[in-house]
Amino acid sequence: xxxxxxxxxxxxxxxxxxxxxxxxxxxxxxxxxxxxxxxxxxxxxxxxxxxxxxxxxxxxxxxxxxxxxxxxxxxxxxxxxxxxxxxxxxxxxxxxxxxxxxxxxxxxxxxxxxxxxxxxxxxxxxxxxxxxxxxxxxxxxxxxxxxxxxxxxxxxxxxxxxxxxxxxxxxxxxxxxxxxxxxxxx
Length: 186
Fold this sequence. Notes:
By secondary structure, the protein is of the alpha/beta class. The protein contains 5 helices and 6 strands, in the order E-H-E-H-E-H-E-H-E-E-H.
């Protein structure tokens, strides 16, 4: 079985917007994202993006534009020596659809776990919101909340469930996972 790091997209890998990231022109990777993912990749984690993209159902963008962003991400990571195993997204409207793929539900996490033979108990979920933490906990993963999103995280220690760790960004999260892994292998 493989270990994975499940990654939220907007606010974790790239700058977020309260208006959604609707096209490639609006997409900006954080400057630390590549370095962070290299650390996780070197630790032999599978890397999988799990993202809610309600902007599709709300008519703010199209499936094609979201896929264009995802193709860019995949190529950019590959260009930097990082293998992204998959991107799973929920296109449904949060107020209308009763889908199972919208975080904090875990259908997309389970799809990825099945596709890549992932042991969820040995995996992490990193994101910038309460829904990401809930999805990670619901899937049986360890969780890290990063403070790079547009949502308020000041009271995150009091969330139910609360994240196992809170870090400044994806790079500090990757460094934490590396330190913890080194501690267990000594």
